[in-house]
Write a structure and sequence with these properties.
Elements lengths: L4 H53 L2 E2 L13 H7 L8 E13 L2 E8 L7 E7 L1 H9 L7 E12 L3 E5 L7 E5 L4 E12 L1
Length: about 190
C-alpha cells in the first residue's frame, strides 16, 4: 500500500479547519463571558453608589410602578408615589430627554415611561457640580437614576401633534395620554 501526499493533506486541512472553528468558538465564548462580567461589575458599582447616596439622603425608591395597576391615575396618586406631599427624597429613573441652563443652574428633563400606561416627565433643577459630568458623557447615556426632592406634580392638560402636508394647514390631533409633570431638585445622580 502506497501512501501519497494527498492522504496527508486532506486530514491536515480537516484538522486545521476543526481547530480554527474550535478556537474561534472558544474565543467568542470567552469574549462574551468577559463582557458579561464587566457589565455585572459596572452594574454592581452603580448599585453600590446608588445605595450609598440613598442612605446619605435617606431616600426611598419612588412607588411609581404600582400606579397603573387599577383604573385611571390621578395627580394625588403620583404625588404620593413621589412623596411630594411629605417632602421626602425619592429615587427615580428615566431617560435623559434634554438639558437646559437657566440662571446658572441646569434643568434636567427626564422621561419615565416604565410605569406602564402613564408617562411621568421630570424637570429637575441641578447645580453645575451634578450636571456637568452628565453633559460631558451625554453621548453614552441611556438612562439616569437620581435622588430627588419633588416639589410639585401636575398633569399636562393636553398635547397637540400633527403633520403639515403640502400647502395645507397641519392636521392637529388631541392626544389624551397626557403626561404628568414632576418638578423638583436633584440631590445626586447616577448615570446608567
Amino acid at each position: 500500500m502506497k501512501i501519497s501526499l494527498n492522504d496527508f493533506i486532506i486530514p491536515v486541512i480537516v484538522l486545521g479547519a476543526a481547530g480554527w472553528w474550535g478556537y474561534s468558538t472558544w474565543s467568542a465564548h470567552v469574549e462574551k463571558s468577559n463582557a458579561e462580567q464587566a457589565r455585572l461589575a459596572a452594574a454592581s458599582r452603580e448599585d453600590r453608589a446608588l445605595a450609598e447616596i440613598a442612605h446619605q439622603h435617606q431616600a426611598t425608591r419612588a412607588l411609581t410602578a404600582r400606579l397603573s395597576e387599577s383604573g385611571p391615575v390621578f395627580t394625588y396618586q403620583v404625588q404620593n408615589a413621589l412623596s411630594a406631599a411629605t417632602g421626602k427624597a425619592v429615587i427615580i429613573s428615566g431617560r435623559l430627554a434634554d438639558i437646559e441652563k437657566r440662571d446658572g443652574l441646569y434643568l434636567l428633563h427626564l422621561t419615565d415611561s416604565s410605569t406602564g400606561s402613564i408617562v411621568i416627565r421630570y424637570v429637575l433643577e441641578c447645580d453645575p457640580k451634578i450636571a456637568e459630568p452628565i453633559i460631558a458623557k451625554r453621548s453614552g447615556i441611556n438612562s439616569l437614576t437620581a435622588v430627588v426632592l419633588v416639589s410639585s406634580v401636575e398633569k399636562a392638560e393636553f398635547k397637540l401633534s400633527g403633520a403639515k402636508s403640502g400647502d395645507r394647514e397641519p392636521n392637529l390631533l388631541l392626544d389624551d395620554s397626557s403626561p404628568f409633570i414632576a418638578r423638583g431638585r436633584c440631590l445626586e445622580v447616577v448615570v446608567r
